[in-house]
């Protein structure tokens, strides 16, 4: 998956996920909206066969890129915790 920054301002980012699937972007948008300084986190897709775009707007001076980075790190942490739990089941 390749990211392409389409727009960036102090409070808005539009990121194209080339070759990306909707599942990850939907999870990322859900995690982003949990941040109280994120106003909008939405996946957009012009047509079913086009690459999806993530639109993020923030409030309170929060950088939209930093918000995306933090949300992605939290998702990665959740996946790591899940893997540890699954591995512990295999050894039980």
From TrEMBL:
InterPro entries in the record: RBP11-like (IPR036603), RBP11-like_dimer (IPR009025), Rpo11-like (IPR022905)
Assigned EC number: 2.7.7.6
Gene Ontology CC, one term: DNA-directed RNA polymerase complex
Record field: catalytic activity: RNA(n) + a ribonucleoside 5'-triphosphate = RNA(n+1) + diphosphate
Keyword presence, Ribosomal protein: no
Pfam families in alphabetical order: RNA_pol_L_2
Compartments where found: Cytoplasm
Residue ranges annotated for the DNA-directed RNA polymerase RBP11-like dimerisation domain, each copy included: 13-84
Transmembrane segments: none
Keywords, comma-separated and alphabetical: Cytoplasm, DNA-directed RNA polymerase, Nucleotidyltransferase, Transcription, Transferase
Main location (coarse class): cytoplasm
SUBUNIT field: Part of the RNA polymerase complex.
Role: DNA-dependent RNA polymerase (RNAP) catalyzes the transcription of DNA into RNA using the four ribonucleoside triphosphates as substrates.
Family according to the record: Belongs to the archaeal Rpo11/eukaryotic RPB11/RPC19 RNA polymerase subunit family.
Record protein name field: DNA-directed RNA polymerase subunit Rpo11
Gene of this entry: rpo11
